[in-house]
Amino acid sequence: MSRALVLPYLDVGKGRQTLTVAPRTSVADMIAMAFPSLPAQRMVRVSIGEHVIPPDLWRLVRPREGATVIIRLVPQQSDTLRSVLTVAVLVAAVSLGQFYAPTIAGALLPASFTGYGAAAATASTLATVGSLATAGFALAGTLLLNALVPAASLGDQGSGTSLNAITGLQNTSNPGGVIPSILGRHRYAPVYAAPPYTEIIDDDQYVIAAFLFGHGPLNLYSHQLGDTPKDNFADVQMEIRQGLPGDEPLTLYPQQVIEEQLSINMRGDGGPSSRFTARDVTEASIDITFSQGLVYIDNKGRNSLIEVDFLLRQRKIGATDWTTVQTISILAKTRQPIRRSIRWTFPERGQYEIELTRLSQDYDDQSDKIARSDWTALRAFRPESPFNYDEPLAKVALRIRASNQLNGIVNNYNAVAALVCKDWDSATGAWIERETSNPASLFRHALQGPANVRPKADSEIDLAGLADWHEFCAAKGLTYNRVHDYDATRLDVLRDIAAAGRATPHDDGAKWGVTIDRPQAAYTAAISPRNSWNFQGKTSYALFPDGHRVKFIDATNGWNQAERIVPFPGVNADQVEVTEDLELPGVTDPDQIWRATRRRQYELIHRPHSYTVSQDFESLVLARGNLAALNHDILDRDQVAARIRSVVGQRVQLDTEVEMQEGRAYALVVRHADGSSIRRTVLTVAGELSVLDLVGDVSAIAPGDLALFGTTLKGPTIDVLVKNIERGDNLTANLTLIDAAPIIDELTDAEIPPAWDGRVGEVEDVSGLVPAVPSVAVSDAALTFNVTVTAGTGAIAVPATYVISYRLHGGGAFSTITIPAYQSIAYIVGFAVGDVIDVKARAVSSFGQSSADSPIVEATLHEAIAQTPTADDNTVKADSAIFTADFF
């Protein structure tokens, strides 16, 4: 098959795509396929290799198989041209998407070298062979500027909660802020979709809250409050809306509620208290709370009913007269807290002042009545929905009993959210709706999803290229899972998604796609001194760290924040001292963290060099990420670029001399006029000569072909990738090139990440830590010694038990008592009035480590003033040494 590259815009980097045509198709037919409505063929320019094909030969020239034809619009003074230039007619030339995994390294790298420090070793090679090479010392992180896929900057994470999206598991309010967009699968503590509020039902308080997960559709799983599953709580109601068109409204939170929490002590002698409602409301409610209960205790200790009355009044803001809403009577006979809620409707919409007065007397000086009352809440209601957004959003409404379960409002609700979007299905060859974390699918969703203000049509996306990338990501285990709830441009989001899939976004002016950093088989161009100028090479001498530290959200450990240190190749984990931080946005799998970090480290080792070169119109065939063959005598003095003068049999004559040495093997790469290339072995003849004997078929070699000469050990060329193209005047371009280094992928694929447990830091043995010496105090009462033990200070180990030793003063063996540390008090009985005892204690850790004994304390038992405790009173008798401790 032949290929055509059509450049339909004056900007040659815009609208480039490929068209594959049958062999022997004429140039005229190619133009007709590329521009079916073009009336004037003189508006295009056609070239094959370095040769421009004149229009009168278009029907006669039939490029052979494998040829690359460039068809480009050129400026003409005509209205037709101006109309054509407004239409993106896309025909392409360069074969894309053909990749393989070669086993050879770049020509500048020693074939056996794969370990730590390779960059420094090979950098000196480049720096000493040519005066155009420049170098400087830098930290390794700066060398990632040579990466085809740029590394994320530590400052590129936006102003939101990108890394710490659920670390604190705290719900927050963000009115007027960014609507979250969850890409992939992630646990998330969503923002409030509306202010939470409370309501009273019977004597129980309930919390009602609505949460916003963001653009849908989302599947929601594993609902929790903090780390506790929702089902562990009683009296919970939940409504889930996935963010689909036609979602029903939330009935648990149907209208706008503005709640003000109050703490106003309502006293009979304190007069009225008043508060203003929110503006433009139709209803209100108040809560009255008796925090100590409401009860009359009769002379027999029984709970009896008691009544407390309040007067509730209102007036609209601006009015002078009050209107009585109602007299509130609350009766109860309980010592438990009680709450009462009163709700009513206003006569007309507006803002009101609410006044509450306690009519009943206070009972502060009467111990038989408990009736303290507080005004604890004022709510105002508007009939409108609390949610005002045109696109469907994933929301959750929650109603949960707070009494005896919660301490305040719900502020730690979280769930696992999974995006449902178009995902490539290789089995059916179609895009289907389902959950996915594949970067290719999320890239398309970012371009077309509801978070995009100006979504792209299918025709504006390289869907075939994304399908190919999807399969690449699936094969490599590459995923992207992230909560985007911060300000970012579309391009920022696309860059982060693409980086997780080893790619970068690419917009050719007509379609969005990606450039994937992976080994390639198809060479797009050959670059040499014969078709380029201004060659320069640059190498930075790197001071590599011992490893990289990556902070990430660990999906294998409850989506908690984690940190993984990945040693540099050749460095043992226990030797890591100097580290650099590395950002890998959207990566939540610890194994993927390891491989992605190692790949960055291999890039540092095997892509230390960058090259710049200028080219004329031959650069038109190149696009970012293309593989090219680079030949230059500055890189290797054995490399020579020449032209074929003549071919006779197996012998070719070059237009310049090359030098060969006895005992060395040489090769010649010949690039034909149509852009295709062949490689042939050269018979070694020592000396300087321009006539070479080749091995193999040379029938396709013709005078004028470009010839690239070099040794077979290093190769006549080195493989490079096009990192950047800066277009200049008159169809020239400045190219930035980097080493292709397919060994990076080979080494990355061979990586086996060590087992991961998510623990941070080394395991410390605390079993040998000793508690501090405790202090002892002894008192006596009712023929009992009361021994109080207090923990000492200055030690780390926490006491688990105390061992108390006692005896009659003057000598003899000690008896011992062991009590739990949380009790701290022991009672000793069995001694007579006037007895003096010695008491000491020591602390014992949970691992059995014991402190030294405390100083001995002497204590005398005085005359009894109360009944002697019995064994039933949790005491110990000195004569039996049986002890059970009482405690407070």
Can you walk me through this structure?
This protein is mostly beta strands. Among the domains are: 2-84, Roll (Ubiquitin-like (UB roll)), CATH 3.10.20; 181-245 and 390-415; 256-382, Jelly Rolls (Sandwich); 775-877, Immunoglobulins (Immunoglobulin-like, Sandwich). It has 9 helices and 53 strands. It has a 7-stranded mixed beta sheet with strand order 6-32-36-45-44-37-31. The chain has a 6-stranded antiparallel barrel with strand order 38-39-42-41-40-43. Helix 5 (439-448) runs antiparallel to helix 6 (463-476). The longest helix is centred in the C-terminal third of the chain and has 17 residues, at 590-606.
- What overall form do the CA principal axes indicate? elongated
Estimate the mean pLDDT confidence: 83
| Head-to-tail CA distance between termini | 92 Å
Which second-level CATH architecture of the domain at 256-382 applies?
Sandwich
Work out the helix count. 9
List the helices and strands and how they pair.
Layout: E1 2-7, E2 17-21, H1 27-34, E3 44-48, E4 51-53, E5 68-73, H2 79-84, H3 118-129, E6 133-139, H4 140-143, E7 181-183, E8 185-188, E9 191-201, E10 204-215, E11 218-225, E12 228-229, E13 236-241, E14 256-266, E15 273-276, E16 281-290, E17 295-297, E18 303-304, E19 306-316, E20 323-332, E21 338-350, E22 352-358, E23 369-370, E24 373-382, E25 393-401, E26 413-425, E27 430-435, H5 439-448, H6 463-476, E28 482-484, H7 490-500, E29 503-507, E30 512-516, E31 523-527, E32 533-543, E33 547-554, E34 560-567, E35 579-581, H8 590-606, E36 609-615, E37 627-630, E38 640-648, E39 651-660, E40 666-671, E41 677-682, E42 687-695, E43 706-711, E44 718-727, E45 733-739, H9 743-749, E46 775-781, E47 784-790, E48 801-808, E49 815-820, E50 825-829, E51 836-844, E52 857-860, E53 876-877
Parallel strand pairs: 1-5, 6-32, 31-37, 33-35, 50-53
Antiparallel strand pairs: 1-2, 3-4, 3-5, 7-28, 8-26, 9-10, 10-25, 11-12, 11-26, 13-25, 14-24, 15-22, 16-21, 16-24, 17-18, 17-23, 19-20, 19-22, 26-27, 29-30, 32-36, 33-34, 36-45, 37-44, 38-39, 38-43, 39-42, 40-41, 40-43, 41-42, 44-45, 46-47, 47-50, 48-49, 48-51, 51-52
